[in-house]
Specification:
The chain has 14 helices and twelve strands. By secondary structure, the chain is α/β, with parallel strands linked by helices. 52% of the residues are buried.
Length: 365
Amino acid sequence: MSDLQFLAARMFGVGFHTPSVPPEIDSLLARGVSSVILFSRNVEYPAQVRDLCADLKNRAGRPLMIGIDQEGGRVRRLRDGFTEIPSMRAVGKANDPKLANEIGAVLARELRAVNIDLNFAPSIDVDTNPNNPVIADRSFSPSPELVADLGCALIEGLQSNGVAACGKHFPGHGDTNVDSHKELPRMTHDMDRLNRIELMPFEAAIKCGVAMIMTAHVVFEPIDPKYPSTMSRDVMTSILRERMKFDGVIVSDDLEMKAIANHFNIEEVIIRCVNAGVDLLMICHNHKLQHQAIDLLTRAVVRGDVPQERLIESNRRLDALMAKYVRKAIEGGNLSILASAEHRAIANRVAELSAASKDPTETWR
């Protein structure tokens, strides 16, 4: 295997469909993929998750980053045996940064106990649209100031306890009225509105050191009327890298979502994502497509359609993140911290404060 192919493969994160490691993942690990994402389909019970992650790390024989969507509320891949974390809207209504930090710490301690290095959370979208079918209570609030404050508190709770956080979905998915899993949303807000509302929490997250930012499969017409943000250099490089000075890892949302897959062929997607500035490309379902994408990126570099320097730059960022957050597998580790009395008390406190809240921003929920 060439050095170029290995550099290309490291820029992919992959998923699979079983509670144990299938042969297809072994072949992808051998090629060099840097990251694996788990879903509910991979989860049976806490010890199984711990051992599955240990098996993945051991099979890789090198640092391998394992991530999961463990936001709280309805987006929790880990349920039975884990603390029932309330939705981020409940955390927002509780409106206590110290408590948000403690929720981040609970999430991190439980993820670390089962060998998970990265939480694809929190959603720092500002939920300003009552017809939004995908964000809603995944957002802390319709207030950008509150989203910024509580998002940073939760990020710091996660990262100070050894789990990388991921702010999502840049540059904002809160005011869409279609689900990007199914369709390609478009937003027409001008830059003044984006600066005041959508971008504020991301600027705060960058200042508080968020390790990773996830893209939105949303077309922001005033910035780039043709391509979704995930594929847009004007969004990812001009705004996120150059203007906002983010030098952490940019990760795509799943490239198999219909907002992307129904509108662009996979070769164009890969080339445009990497040239836009994305460092880690997520392909979460189809093993044939995962291999094809690695080959397409490798050939694009050979042809000169993607500069090899882009791969080197992304690998540098991945190396830095993984050196800080990726740990060796703990086999047979103690799981007593999961759903402990201390953790349940923190989650219950959020629920109590949220239920008692008279949040003035809650005008339509």
